[in-house]
Amino acid sequence: MKRIILILLSVLALNQAQAQGKKTEKATFGMGCFWCTEAIFQRLKGVTAVKSGYEGGRLANPTYEEVCTGATGHAEVLEISYNPMVISYDELLEVFWKSHDPTTLNRQGADSGTQYRSVVFYHNAEQKALADKYKAALNKNNAFGKPVVTAVEAAKPFYVAENYHQNYYLKNGSEPYCRAVILPKMQKLEKIFKAKLKN
Predict the structure, then answer these.
(1) Could you tell me if 112 and 69 are in contact, meaning their C-beta atoms sit under 8 angstroms apart?
(2) Is 0.85 surpassed by the pTM of this model?
(3) Which one of 49, 169, 177, 191 is at 20 to 30 Å from 197 when CA atoms are compared?
(4) What's its top-level EC category (predicted)?
């Protein structure tokens, strides 16, 4: 009897571990400078990790300096790990599209170049379908007054950016750039998505 109980407990523990392992999924978005956008997704309930990095280019292990030339084809992106039981991919897409200008090709504010393009890198067919559907609805409703130019592409190799780019706003929030450019985005986030934010 003890042996059966031990086997059952082992099976339950394994099933629970597998279920927990499936709780985290990935979303990858490019929406301009990752310094400006990383802090937004870090504030959302259900987001467990955000890494700034590079994706969509031709060069393996690119450096920030190489990506900044625009010659590598990479975009500055965020790789977001999230718990879909707490926040859905649809909700992440909503934050993505409302937190930058998806109508400007290869530009966000003063930042211009293909590395600042608006892009969704999808990780599965469901993410592609949701991104395409959302983009089509935005364009049908003329939500931005101009066509959404966001690219929807299959995920490619992701390269983590250098350490000094990670948690940039958390480490440098008092810097003039952070106060002038990132803080207004955070204030907008507080207004629009207050119920979705971590305490």
Answers:
(1) no
(2) yes
(3) 177
(4) oxidoreductase
pLDDT for residue 70 is more than 80: yes
The confidence score (pLDDT) of residue 199 equals 83
CB atoms under 10 Å from CB of 141, counted, come to 8
User: pLDDT digit string (tens) for 83-112?
Assistant: 999 999 999 999 999 999 999 999 998 899
From residue 164, give the alpha-carbon distance in Å to each of 6, 21, 161, 169, 193.
48, 29, 8, 11, 28
| 147's tokens | 């066509």
Residues serving a catalytic function are: 33
Q: Amino acid identity, residue 163?
A: N
Rounded Cα distance, 177 and 181, in Å: 6
**Cα–Cα–Cα angle for 5, 10, 14, rounded to 5 degrees:** 150
Q: What angle do CA 28, 32, 38 make, to 5 degrees?
A: 55
Residue with tokens 């937190």: 99
For 60, 70, 125, 138, the CA distances from 98, given in Å and listed in that order, are 31, 25, 23, 11
For residue 61, what are the CA distances in angstroms to 5, 52, 70, 145, 162?
Answer: 50, 14, 15, 38, 11
Tens of pLDDT, residues 7-26: 444 544 544 544 455 589 99
Pairwise CA distance, residues 70 & 72, whole Å = 6
Tell me if 117 sits within 8 A of 32, measured CB to CB.
no
pLDDT at 36: 86
Q: How far apart are CA 158 and CA 97, in angstroms?
A: 21
